[in-house]
Amino acid sequence: MDYLDILRLLDSTLRLATPLLLACLAGLFSERAGIFDIGLEGKMLAAAFASAAVAVWASAPVDNPQLGQLSGLGWGWQAAWLGVFAGIVASVFLSIIHGLASITLRGNQLISGVAINFLAAGLTVLISQNIFKRGGQTPPLTGDARFSEITLPFAETLSSVPIIGLMYSEVISGHVIFVYVGLLCVPLTWWVLFRTRFGLRLRAVGENPGAVDTAGISVTRLRYAAVIICGVLCGLAGAYLSMGTAAAGFGRDMTALRGFIALAALIFARWRPWAAMWACLLFGFLQAVSTYYPKVDVFGLFVIPSDFMEALPYILTVVILAGVGGKAIPPRAGGVPYVKER
Amino acid sequence: MHFLKSLALTAAAAGLAGASFAADIKPAVIFDIGGKFDGSFNEASFRGAERFKEETGIEYREFEIQSDAQREQALRRFAQQGNNPIVVAGFAYGSAMEAVAAEFPDTNFAIVDMVVDLPNVRSVVFNEHEGSYLVGMMAAMKSESGTVGFVGGMDIPLIRKFACGYVQGVKAVNADATVIQNMTGTTGAAWNDPVKGGELTRSQVDQGADVVYHAAGGTGRGVLQAAADAGILGIGVDSNQNGMQPGKVLTSMLKRVDVAVYNAMMDAKNDAFTPGFSVLGVAQDGVGYAMDDNNKDLVSSDMVDAVEAAKAKIIAGEIAVHDYTSDDSCPVS
Q: Shortest CA distance to A320 belongs to which of A263, A267, A258?
């Protein structure tokens, strides 16, 4: 394994970590406000479908008909952005359903989350099949309707500089915009949660909603704000999967349990933004290793199969939950609907 | 070889015991999860049923299951309603078929990709290793780097059979060639993860592969896309996938599920339905490679000649392509 191999591994890590990171931060907002969300997977899936379907429709020629009765809009790159918007709308819509069930109607948050996962898995395939008649897939996105990789300035020139230059051109440059957005969301999330009044209240509502209510601030409104932010971030994660990767379109269940790995990363990071980034990068790195090295040979002594690498995120999360290296304490009011005292 | 022989013997024995039924038939087909327009396996069985309908004017019934739990239900309901023959495609129907076919001994069933040993069931299996051998030869002839890739879906013996045939084909052309093999996963999710498929393909490209063959269902769309993005060639599977990335897909390994479905219905109509094994290989045109307008500029006539020669030798028995599932091992890698 030489230097270039390591760089490629890191490059792949960033791509694989991005959907995890976006979904993990989404869960962070929601859970910090006291709303457990195991519906990350479903929201990502719905967003992946909505963004791909709308982008396909918007980019199809005006009088054409790849998709049966509907004629397209004939848009160029705008189609991709309209797709992202549609993905966010779909995901926020599911978030609001989750909010209705668990904030307004004070239902069980876990059950609502499970319901959202099932709803998304079934509804996406059903709608897709009805419109496109391709067994639940959307037609492939082509050209400007998907996001292409951005080459950062000076990547070409710097690539001749040893070590640092190569690192810059191979790892840091050349990703789709979602990767950079995901990374930028980390300091943004930290700043919102720990440096703004809104963030303070949002965290307080997850620890002690009674105190927030006493101060005359609406618990309901804050919690809705949190689940909507969660929806937006999940929407980005889903749009990335269907529009920013080689999938180039939607296929049934294409999130492939990434929502649950993101949830595991959230617990692993003990509900903290910077730690969430490192957790997602670690889990992404494990996935990248299993991709590049299906069988890791340890000094010829024994072989670690790729399945082990894939299972490691879950194993690590259980270890953390068991209290190794400090206790993992979830937000105190998490999972408990708030009932206003009269 | 021993395995093939025993297959042939079983088929012959079953043929003698062939059932005879009225020509007034009510055929039915049940699709696997994925739906009938999946651009792959199910679509092929749909095409076979459609061809039967066009040629005979006999309507058929169909059902698209949405979950695993519906397999047995759908089979039983169709059988209760007197449909005959009932054709299903997909290895996952095996246990459901065993249960239902035993309950309805007077109904003819056909299952593709799986062996169910009952007197009223025809089991159709394909020699995927032979078709994969042919596309492997093409990959090796097209490759300039001497390195080619394979991306499988779920790690099961059937997919290893594809991989093993492919590697043998590659090595037949270029004994020094390297074949990078990856499986997407070990659960059902591995069939529907185009993101991971794309990532695996990129890793193979990074390691020098310039032709990548997939046998990974829905994951394959990511494979073909990533191959096209990287400027290399992909190879499709099951149906003709040359059009998915026109000019970027070298060929597709065809698995004629449509022929299996069509034959089952047609035989039932002609009172010639035979239960037992039926093996479709290159000799029966059950597997092969796809040529169309999308890839005609990619495949030279020399390549076609070489592949056709190999095909003739396989049919004549001069080339024996090893079947992974016969002994769960592959002589080359």
A: A267
**Rounded distance between C-alpha atoms, residue B86 and residue B26, angstroms:** 9
**Cβ contact B326:B261 at 8 Å:** no
| A295 CB-contact burial (10 Å; exposed 0-12 / middle 13-18 / buried 19+) | exposed
The torsion defined by the Cα of A142, A144, A148 and A152, in degrees rounded to 10, comes to 160
Confidence of residue A69 (pLDDT cuts 50, 70, 90): low
Q: Would you call A253 an interface residue with chain B, using a CB distance cutoff of 8 Å?
A: yes
User: Between chains, do A246 and B193 touch, taking CB under 8 Å as contact?
Assistant: no
Residue B212: CB partners within 8 Å, gap ≥ 6?
B148, B149, B150, B151, B201, B204, B205, B223, B227, B232, B233, B234, B235
pLDDT digits (tens, 9 = 90+) for A24-59: 999 999 999 999 999 999 999 999 999 999 999 888
Name the pTM for this structure: 0.88
Given a cut of 80, whether residue B13 has pLDDT beyond it is no
Domains of chain B: 2-127+257-284 (3.40.50.2300), 128-254+287-327 (3.40.50.2300)
Contacts of A256 in chain B (CB under 8 A): 189, 192-193, 195-196
pLDDT at A64 over 70: no
B129: tokens are 């290793």
Integer CA distances (angstroms), B299 to B161, B167, B295, in order: 25, 19, 7
Separation CA B123–CA B109 (nearest Å)? 9
* Contact between A90 and A50 (Cβ < 8 Å): yes
Interface test with A, best of B33, B159, B196 (most A CBs within 10 A): B196
Chain A nearest CA to B333, separation (Å): 14
Bridge partners (DSSP) listed for residue B219: none
DSSP letters along A224-244, please?
HHHHHHHHHHHHHHHHHHHHS
pLDDT value at residue A157: 81
The Cα-based distances of A115 to A112, A118, A234, B117 in angstroms read 5, 5, 17, 40
Length of chain B, in residues: 333
Looking at the domain A3-146+161-321, which fold is it?
A: ABC transporter involved in vitamin B12 uptake, BtuC (1.10.3470)
Residue B56, token pair as written in the block = 């005979």
Total H helices, total E strands in chain A: 13, 2
What are the CA-CA distances from residue A298 to residues A7, A8, A293 (Å)? 21, 21, 12
State how far the Cα of B13 lies from the Cα of B16, in Å rounded to an integer.
5
Chain A, 271-310: which have a CB under 8 Å from a chain B CB? 287-288, 291-292, 294, 306-307, 310
Report the C-alpha gap between B113 and B128 in whole angstroms.
10
DSSP track, A165-228: HHHIIIIISSB-HHHHHHHHHHHHHHHHHHHSHHHHHHHHHHH-HHHHHHTT--HHHHHHHHHH
C-beta atoms of A137 and B218 within 8 A: yes
**Which letter does DSSP use for residue A68 in this model?**
T
Which chain A residues have a beta carbon less than 8 Å from that of B196?
Answer: 256, 287, 291
Every domain of chain A and the residues it spans: 3-146+161-321
Dist. CA A234–CA A263, nearest whole Å: 12
List the structure tokens of B150.
Answer: 């394979």
Rounded to whole angstroms, how far apart are CA atoms B72 and B77? 8
Query: For residue B62, what are the β-bridge partners?
Result: B29
Sign of CA dihedral A179, A9, A253, A110: negative
Q: Which of A8, A137, A257 sits opposite B39 (nearest CB)?
A: A137
